[in-house]
Amino acid sequence: MKLTIFLLFVLCLSSGGMAAENGSFKYDFTEIRPGVWTGIRANSQLFPVMGNTTFVVSDEGVVVFDGGGVPAMAEQIIAKIRSITAVPVTHVVISHWHGDHNFGVYRYAEEFPNVQFIAHSFTHAAMSGPRIRYIDGYPGFIEENLENFRMRAGGKDAEGNDINEYDQQAYAGIVRNAEEIDREYKRATVTMPTMVFDDKLVIHSGDRVIELLFLGHGNTAGDIVMWLPTEKVVATGDLVVLPSPYAFNVPPRPWAATLEALKALDYELLVPGHGEVQSDQRYIDLVIESALAVADQRDEMLSQGLSNDVIMEKLDFSAIEPRFTGGDGRTRMYYMAWYEGPFRKAAIKALSGEPMVDIAPEPEPED
User: Fold this and answer.
1) With contact defined as beta carbons under 8 Å apart, do 201 and 118 qualify?
2) What is the mean pLDDT of the segment spanning 305-313?
């Protein structure tokens, strides 16, 4: 299990930049509509990657969408809410099962005893199964690997191979913030949803109408979005991520269809799972276009009788990559780690007809 965590960690590093001077888990809060607030990670590539948050304040309560990947982030949100209003948090929405959006949300239950945690039924199943359990390896992870990280920050790995400048900066940031990261990893835990739905759930909070929608397969098979029809604001979780998408286990054509459904909401502001708030649909159009281009290439090569392995190798991203990276070296590493590399595999995996992620419980040990 810890090897799995280390591999995930390295993928994060390949996309990371230098740690912020004020620590690893800081939100920048902005009121984007009256009573609608976002907390944005200023550097979406910073290790540990952590999701954005959005919360909606009414005269009856507060609804939080993606409440914090570690307790320190949840505590920032709670403190910000209490600086704005005396009403309690009534609901915390979990956009999908990945822990960087929810491993800190138990703090709401400690502060607001009547809070409800809401998620899609797939998310509930995933959080009940073995895939979420990689959190078991969090405690002590930084401490156990710190010397390795220091070596890499100095430019060499354990075998003496050179480390590129971007990864050196990322490892140096981890070393600087090791105590803070280690403390929060040790505090992290899984909080199960107390309410689930499949298609749509509407929350009436004072005069606010808050719609939780499942639009289709995205980053996971249970991604939900929070839509505020009056305010024309949508928060997407990792269905939308900047500066380049997350494409692990994402089927290209269903993903494009889900994003078309998102566009049909005709939003004015979009809060992504990672990255800056968007005020138009240009980025969504780019993601849709690139996903369909990959699917079209794949299907054309299938019609020629090429094998899956050959197709995965031959998929051409040369026209796609510069539109996401703009030629920036660090962003390109992020793009390769989280988008192009995983999407090659996902485009082929989607052909099998099997679930993109197996959330079946582990078999019981034999007596």
Assistant:
1) yes
2) 97
Q: What is the pLDDT of residues 137-185, one digit of tens each?
A: 566 777 788 888 899 889 988 888 888 887 888 788 888 888 888 889 8
Question: What are the start-end ranges of the E strands in the chain?
Answer: 28-33, 36-40, 53-57, 62-65, 89-93, 116-120, 195-197, 200-205, 208-213, 225-228, 233-235, 269-271
Task: Tokens for 283, please give them.
Answer: 């980025």
Q: Contact, 112 vs 89, CB < 8 A?
A: yes
Tokens of 127: 């959080």
Distance in angstroms (rounded) separating the CA atoms of residues 158 and 259: 43
Amino acid at 47: F
146, 168, 173, 182, 305 from 152: Cα distances, Å: 10, 6, 11, 18, 44
Number of Cα atoms under 13 Å in the Cβ half of residue 111: 22
Q: How many CB atoms lie within 10 A of CB 264?
A: 9
Alpha helical stretches, state H, 265-307: 282-303
Supply 121's token pair.
């039924």
Read off the pLDDT band of 135 (50, 70, 90).
Answer: low
User: What sign results for the dihedral spanned by CA atoms 294, 298, 300, 301?
Assistant: positive
Q: DSSP string spanning 163-180?
A: --HHHHHHHHHHHHTHHH
